[in-house]
Amino acid sequence: MAVDRYDVLVIGGGPGGYVAAIRAAQLGLKTACVERWIGKDGQPALGGTCLNVGCIPSKALLESSEQYHRARHGLAAHGITVGEVAIDPAAMVARKDGIVRQFTGGIGGLFRKNGVTWLKGSGRLVGEGKVEVAGTDGAAQTVSAEHIIIATGSRPTPLLVAPLDGVRIVDSAGALDFTDVPARLGIIGAGVIGLELGSVWARLGSAVTLLEAMPEFLPVADRAIAALAHKELTGQGLQIRLGARVTAAALAGDGVTVDFEDAKGAQQAAFDRLIVAVGRQPVTDRLGLDAVGIAPDERGFIPVDGQFRTSAAGVYAIGDVVRGPMLAHRASEDGIAVAEGIAGQHCHVDYGTIPWIIYTWPEIAWVGRTEQALKAEGVPYTVGTFPFQANGRARAMEAAQGQVKLLAHAETDRVLGVHIIGPHASELIAEAVVAMEFCASAEDLARIVHAHPTLSEALHEAALAAHKRAIHI
Ligand code: FAD
Ligand code: AMP
Prior knowledge:
By secondary structure, this protein is an alpha/beta fold. It contains twelve helices and 21 strands. A five-stranded mixed β-barrel has the order 1-2-3-4-5. Strands 7-14-8-9-10 form a five-stranded parallel β-sheet. A five-stranded antiparallel β-sheet has the order 17-18-21-20-19, sandwiched between helices.
């Protein structure tokens, strides 16, 4: 039987892999993508973690829960009285599933439009330029390709002391499918995923406790922003227990008991449901890396150079399976860059300007360096901050929590970092990313006209504040 031959074969159809495949096809390369995911409806699905059990479904539930919470608690301030407000979690989850199916199906449409072949099944490297595909239909085939891009992504890191049962003890994927609101919800890990999922169920009425082993809250964020986030989130009722290391979790009666240790010693807590959200690990098992001589690093990531080349000729790796921020937009930018590199174009992603977002209320978003990083590196800097309390639009929205903090180089005035906690921080951060990509100074941002009244004026004022000339504070 003739072996199908491609210019580019991508293993993994998440936001890294499917974007790489589309870009490679746009550049005239004969491209296939191997993807094995089976959706909740039992059908093969593209889109990876992000579309199926990550970014999109979590944002759908965050939006629904936010609307519910606002209807119950946020409308009185506007003089609006509503009758009894109820939530149907099953309907909320069904809406989420509909959005997921629409988007995963949409990727299939994009593949057809761009001429990308989807090989439904599991890919495994079996030699130089050769990949064996074990089809979801049971059939196996071997395909060959000049360039192979590994985009196999990540999965939740298991916590051996807290084995999942899929109903009461679940990972982040299971937590997107609760069809009732647990009265007491425990979450192991107060990272981005733990905080977002905790927010969803707390808004719907769960008493949420997050057990976090680290003594510091959100160590990746700017300290001042993390402190404000901690105050806001605990003020909303999230119990965040820092320095609490979980040592055991087990089903007990109708619920779950969790043993943990903190500064006070050994403790126990009881919950109705428990989410294990202790991070994600790269997926490289049964991928045949040894067949082409690739050795993962000590944490399981595939080592690559600046052009995403692995140690094996013609094999590249991108996204969550490679060290760096485990973010969908980063994976997609890797995908575009690697495809363009293969086509002989420039191949580069600026990791210094990747935005981070936590979709809690208020949202938290940042780009560039934190104040603590600048201090540690001995970089001279100036700080400009501006509170949303003094922003007319935020006040009109009844959403004036938080602030914008801008860090600029003390001598060159170049913007080094922007950190926002506040309404629509996820959208506001885009201006800061553009500014940093264009090497803007704080003065550049200060001199750009910002429409009034908008939330973006808070960034404008923070840039003015860096020069001690904010107008409205
Ligand atoms: P993945 O999306 O993990 O895709 C890898 C794909 O490869 C999978 O579909 C898998 O089935 C397939 N695969 C693996 N091995 C094989 C094989 N051998 N053969 C065939 N196919 C294979 N990021 C954000 O930027 N914003 C967010 O708001 C956000 N929210 C998140 C919320 C949650 C709850 C979670 C869990 C994650 C979230 N993320 C978010 C992270 C984001 O989902 C990941 O960073 C992103 O999906 C990584 O993309 P990827 O293409 O590298 O890998
Ligand atoms: P993230 O990497 O952002 O998804 O966050 C995962 C969090 O889980 C990290 O902050 C870890 O410190 C935390 N974590 C890991 N293991 C444990 C444990 N046994 N008990 C409590 N928290 C943990």
